[in-house]
Amino acid sequence: VRNTARFILGNLSDFNPDTDVVSYDKLNELDRLVLSNFQSLVKRVNESYDKFEFHSLYHEIHNFCAVDLSSFYLDIIKDRLYTAFDDSVERRAAQTVLHQIINDLVKLIAPVLSFTAEEIWQYLREIEKGEESVFLAPWPEVNENYRDRNLEKKWDNILKIRKDVLKALEIKRGEGFIGNSLEAQVNIYTEDKEVYDYLISFKEQLETIFIVSKTDIVRGEGEKSFSSDASTGVEFPAVKVLITRAPGEKCERCWCYSETV
User: Fold this and answer.
1) Which stretches within the chain are classed as H helix?
2) For residue 260, how many other CB atoms are within 10 A of its CB?
3) Domain boundary among 122, 146, 170
4) Could you give the CA distance from residue 224 to residue 247 in angstroms, rounded to a whole number?
5) Terminus of the chain with fewer CB atoms < 10 Å: N or C?
6) Are residues 164 and 141 part of one domain?
7) Which is it for strands 257-258 and 249-250: parallel, antiparallel or unpaired?
């Protein structure tokens, strides 16, 4: 929790909530997804507090910070935060989401991690003047406007496929085939038309989701026949994943490999 808060606060140093907030309708799907997931967390944590189930709420918060944020959302948006223009909509959108999450998360942990919460709150007050103490701030409630169950359902399978892709990338990294994941191209094969169409609907986002330089979606074996290196998905068995080297040269600014560099 502390490390998650440190990362978020470090990336809000130039964010002014009065002028830099991006409206919800301008957020991309990934931003809206994590906001929706966070509202579900608020609901579960509030229910646990009502039942005095402190062990449950601690695990819920820890899991959200470790899995939903650190291993997923924060990992993906690093490039946006570090390489996008300071005042770009995409960077400000990510900061908007981070600010909203940390502003409520710090209140959720206050009863059980009091000193950590107060320390975080004092740093937040440098960004936006609020109550003198986190214990004087209003308690967070679920914002139903941010809950999007259809979006969560839409992303369920792509998150499973992402786990299979990350596993394949880690194997290739261990073999010394690639170093950074941006050196890779992810090739995904499926013989299921519905799965193929589903993946194509994410085509413009896949490089960002997998944190690679290029992706290729193939229905059946296509021109690129299955390699012995292609692995069947564990989380999502309807796909096979093959990792190859990304074509092109490395961009010195974003570190992605591109044939136009």
Assistant:
1) 2-10, 29-50, 54-63, 74-83, 89-109, 114-127, 149-174, 193-200, 206-210
2) 6
3) 146
4) 15
5) C
6) no
7) antiparallel
The 3-state DSSP class for residue 37 equals helix
CA distance 146 to 169: 33
**Which amino acid, residue 105?**
L
The pLDDT of residue 20 is above 90:
yes
- The residue behind tokens 């959302």 is 73
Question: What tokens were used for 159?
Answer: 């998150």
pTM of the model: 0.89
- In the DSSP assignment, the letter for residue 145 is G
The separation between the first and the last C-alpha atoms of the chain, rounded to the nearest angstrom, is 39
CB atoms within 10 A of CB 191: 13
Residue 94: CB atoms within 10 A of its CB come to 27
Check: CB of residue 180 under 8 Å from CB of residue 240: no
Same domain, 89 and 15: yes
Q: What is the H or E stretch that residue 66 is in?
A: none
Structural tokens at position 114: 């009091």
Task: Give the model's pLDDT for residue 4.
Answer: 95
Range of the structural domain that residue 180 is part of: 152-258
